[in-house]
Amino acid sequence: MNRHVLVTVSDNPSYLYGVRFVAGFFRNVEKLKVTLFYVAPPEAMAGKKEEDGEKELIARVKEALATAEHILVQNGFKRENIEFKITSRKFGTVKDIIREGRQGLYDAVVLGRRGYTIFEKLFSYSVSREILERPIPFPVWICREFEKDRRGCLVCVDGSEAAFAVTDHVGFMLSEESLHHITVLHVLETREKEEEGAGILEKAVEMLRENGVPAERISVEMVAGGKPADVILDKLKREKYAVVAMGKTGRGEKKGWFRGSCCDVILNHLKGFCLWVGR
């Protein structure tokens, strides 16, 4: 099945975290389409006589896009599956990314260094909480210095709708990626909730199987006690997952792990792996 991701690009060719993740993580890329997206300052797109600073910016953007295409092609992507889209900033970078993600019906929006910095602030309740609470109808992947030798996906489920939504997303994106094993993790609040936890894991596995993920590529783990963020980070340290997938709940929804401290802790340790967030 065809998949299509929007990868945000900064004007610095030295980073391109999102591009490097997509290029290094996926192997079955025949049906994976990538749109490279850059939000430019309005003055750079005004069509007037260019100042020296604007010329320099445009040159950097062109170099970054060319580098991004080269990285993807070197990792097996077909040039015809790579698109470029540059737009003038209209509502602010974050809102413009959300707008494009919504209108383009992408399967995911991939944020690199620039996007990571912006959304790191958004995930803090002190900045732009209103935007965070808006329904974003697509998963967001946040990448920072991805380590190409990492493998596998850790899907963290807490029983919320958001967690099951990101589980479905993982199944869709990774059903044909045989290189990556999927571990479904549930952290028990108390031993008394073990039966409930087993039901949550069973539902998550069923969703993965419905997306075509073979049973031999799925394992489950239930951990009793401890803070979810600490459990996740401990597993990352020991098992070097490439992806951690979590749900994000909004106002009025059942509380999930991605609300509050767990979110902050995972983002603060975001290095080497990619965080997939769905709601």
From TrEMBL:
Gene3D superfamilies: HUPs. Residues 1-144, 153-271 form the UspA domain. InterPro entries: Rossmann-like_a/b/a_fold (IPR014729), UspA (IPR006016). Pfam families: Usp. Belongs to the universal stress protein A family. It comes from Thermodesulforhabdus norvegica. This is Nucleotide-binding universal stress protein, UspA family.
